[in-house]
Specification:
The protein is of the alpha/beta class and about 240 residues long. About 30% of the residues lie in helices and about 15% in strands. Keywords: Cytoplasm, Metal-binding, NAD, Transferase, Zinc.
């Protein structure tokens, strides 16, 4: 039995699947991965992306933050790939209970998934830091300089910047779903970003599937390890 067939068999046996995904889920939709060879970390800017995407930089260099953010983080024309679409199908069929994602692009929702736990927020939610009024990602794309609310306040993307805490309620809901899962599928993540990566330790089952082209610290814990592109795996199961 090959690994894809093993994956299919595990899926067939499961009723409470949780998917935990990272940047690799979205790269096949044309969204750059920070840590890959062609990702943002290997391009040259006045400051490293990790610095620009920090809370301190946002406060101190707000206009420069937004120049980078609009240029590199808002890929609103990206479309869901095979992984996003298959996960949404599993949810409609009642097999998948939640998608836990480190991505901020909203592609899981675009594919039709409903229970998506966004650990790092979403580019599709933006709010005025003064009055709390909401603004769309399209508004942010079309804005210039520092985007401002009609009240004059700065509009901030609802994304977790370096130096900011994760949303406690979302983390607790993710932990609850992972702990109750009868199958955990991890895909497209190096499992190097904490505290998000530590959430998978709450899984107690024996159907841990890890799909990632490069090694992760949890490879030895996987019941099934697939070192392939996530899109090609999900297009065949």
């Amino acid at each position: 039995m090959n690994d894809i067939q093993k994956f299919k068999d595990l899926i067939d046996k499961s009723k409470r699947i949780v998917f935990f995904g990272g940047a690799g889920v979205s790269t096949e939709s044309g969204i750059p991965d920070f840590r890959s060879v062609d990702g943002l970390y290997h391009q040259t800017y006045r400051y490293p992306p990790e610095t620009i995407l920090s809370h301190d930089f946002f406060v101190a260099h707000t206009e420069e933050f937004f120049d980078f953010y609009r240029d590199k983080m808002l890929t609103l024309d990206a479309m869901p790939n095979a992984a996003h679409l298959k996960l949404a199908k599993w949810e409609r069929e009642g097999k998948l209970t939640a998608v836990v994602t480190q991505n901020i692009d909203g592609l899981h929702q675009k594919a039709g998934s409903r229970n998506v736990l966004e650990l790092h927020g979403s580019v599709h939610r933006n709010y005025c830091m003064e009055c709390g009024k909401s603004y769309s990602a399209d508004y942010m794309v079309k804005s210039q300089g520092v985007p401002r609310c009609i009240c004059g306040g700065v509009i901030k993307p609802d994304v977790v910047l370096y130096g900011e805490p994760l949303n406690t309620e979302i983390v607790e809901t993710a932990v609850e779903n992972i702990a109750q899962a009868d199958m955990l599928v991890i895909g497209g993540t190096s499992l190097a970003v904490y505290p998000a990566a530590g959430l998978i330790e709450y899984y107690q089952g024996d159907r841990l599937v890890l799909i990632n082209q490069s090694p992760t610290p949890y490879d030895d814990n996987a019941d099934l390890l697939l070192k392939e592109k996530i899109g090609s795996v999900f297009s065949t199961v």
